[in-house]
Design a protein that fits this description.
mainly alpha; ABC transporter transmembrane region fold; two-stranded antiparallel ribbon; about 70% helix
Length: about 475
């Protein structure tokens, strides 16, 4: 009945009738039929004219609804894919949004956003100083342990006392020929030193525990507060945008702003402070100790700090497994997750046009793109790992040679214990460079994420549903 009324209305020339329909039989008798795809007019004309158009979109759509055996399925699939690919080449909304977001990025805004948590940052800085100082202290205790393991026990009686052992409290017994008291004195000294080293380890453990607790308490709490505040502002900004804003952005890109992009704000506030303080506290303390015990050795160490820092950072990444894994997943509808979302959201269209195999092929291609070249990645990872170990061993050999030469040429100034403390205090302090770099955020990704967030927050909606401006009814 409704169809008959519409047909009669369209056959009448008394008025202009506009009909919007998905069922094609509804508009068959219209004078002009407009075929619209992705907001653009693709074909226009009467039913007979459009049906006679070779490989026309309207013709293929009519045939697909009739389920004729002569339907060109390949053309329908191609046409369905062109709706996404061909039409969006004119206006790439995602690329346009990224360009607007990149212009909205400002480091100062990100830092100012973190100012309310300044007290928590101060707590984290104190913890970072303590945590950074643990590394050179660890080197000192390690040097003392090696000195204990190589504690000299001379044969009794001895024809001479080696240079550097004259001040040993047990040497007088050795000179007098009292062998048993001498060996008992050596044993007591080693026992005393072992107790002292155990006490030093207890202090280092306590400092490490307290320092890291303060770091995670300060910077961790600040991060969570910043994340919550940013998520609230981002969600509020989303609620204020007009409907056209969401037509140009996928659901995945919008939800990622609330989940992933917010976490990157910390890369411009707490993370640089934490990394800088730990590095400075460790390296400056290590250099000071090294200069105090053997300053010529410290000068050489300063020259090779960049090499050692690079090698140590690479070694820490290998130890923690950060150099493993494939490439980062690509974003948008070309990613495996994006293909799944788009397919499931439009499963009726996929089923109607028998696009299941094509979607599976697209998904497999996206997975292959994410995996990358496994052989190449493994080769690069192995080369970098070997290079880091080679640099560390070469630096250690150079340091041992230089320290041994100094002890040989200046025995009255430097002894074995001074060399060990000077070397290990500085060497262990460099471990902080690698430890502080763990979990560091990719700078480009952080800038892109911050730009998207601040663009959204500062964007003025064309039709703000939460705004109070505009006309008001009496």
């Amino acid at each position: 009945m409704v169809q008959a009324a519409l047909d009669k209305l369209m056959e009448s020339h008394e008025r202009t009738t506009i009909v919007i329909a998905h069922r094609l039989s509804t508009v068959r008798k219209a004078d002009r039929i407009a075929f619209i795809a992705n907001g653009k007019l693709r074909e226009i004309g009467a039913h007979d004219d459009l049906m006679n158009k070779p490989n026309g979109r309207y013709q293929r759509l009519v045939e697909s609804q009739k389920r004729k055996s002569s339907v060109n399925v390949a053309a329908i699939k191609s046409d369905a894919l062109l709706y996404l690919d061909e039409d969006e080449e004119d206006v790439d909304f995602e690329k346009e949004a990224e360009e607007l977001a990149s212009k909205a990025f400002n480091k100062a805004d990100a830092r100012n956003f973190a100012k309310p948590e300044i007290n928590l940052y101060l707590v984290g800085i104190v913890g970072a100083v303590i945590a950074g100082g643990v590394f050179p202290a660890w080197g000192i205790v390690f040097a003392e342990m090696i000195g204990l393991l190589f504690y000299p026990a001379l044969p009794c009686p001895t024809p001479y006392v080696p240079l550097g052992l004259e001040d040993n409290s047990c040497v007088s017994l050795l000179i007098d020929g009292s062998c048993v008291p001498y060996y008992e004195c050596i044993a007591n000294d080693m026992k005393r030193m072992s107790y002292e080293i155990a006490g030093y380890w207890a202090i280092i453990i306590a400092a490490c525990l307290i320092g890291n607790i303060l770091v995670f308490k300060g910077f961790g709490t600040a991060t969570e507060r910043i994340n919550k505040r940013m998520r609230d502002m981002t969600f509020g900004a989303l609620m204020r945008q007009e409907v056209a804003f969401f037509d140009k952005r996928s659901v995945g890109s919008i939800t990622s702003q609330l989940q992933d992009d917010v976490a990157f704000i910390f890369a411009f506030s707490g993370e640089p402070v934490r990394t800088l303080v730990i590095n400075l506290a460790s390296v400056v303390t290590g250099l000071t100790i090294s200069f105090f015990f053997m300053w010529p050795f410290a000068l050489l160490s300063i020259a090779i700090i960049p090499l050692m820092g690079f090698a140590t950072a690479m070694e820490m990444k290998r130890f923690l497994g950060e150099d493993e894994g494939g490439n980062e997943a690509v974003d948008g509808t070309d990613s495996p997750g994006g293909i799944i979302v788009e397919t499931l959201l439009n499963i009726r269209t996929v089923s109607a046009l028998t696009l299941e195999e094509q979607r599976c092929k697209d998904y497999e291609a996206a997975l292959a793109k994410v995996d990358g070249n496994v052989m190449k990645d493994s080769f690069i990872s192995g080369v970098l790992s070997g290079l880091s170990i080679a640099i560390q061993q070469w630096v250690n050999a150079l340091q041992f040679w230089w320290g041994g030469w100094l002890m040989y040429k200046f025995p009255e100034l430097y002894d074995f214990n001074s060399f060990l403390i000077s070397m290990f205090a500085l060497l262990f302090s460099l471990f902080a460079l690698g430890a502080a770099a763990q979990g560091a955020t990719d700078k480009k990704k952080a800038e892109a994420a911050a730009g998207r967030l601040f663009y959204l927050i500062n964007r003025e909606s064309a039709n703000d549903p939460l705004g109070t401006d505009g006309k008001k009814l009496d």
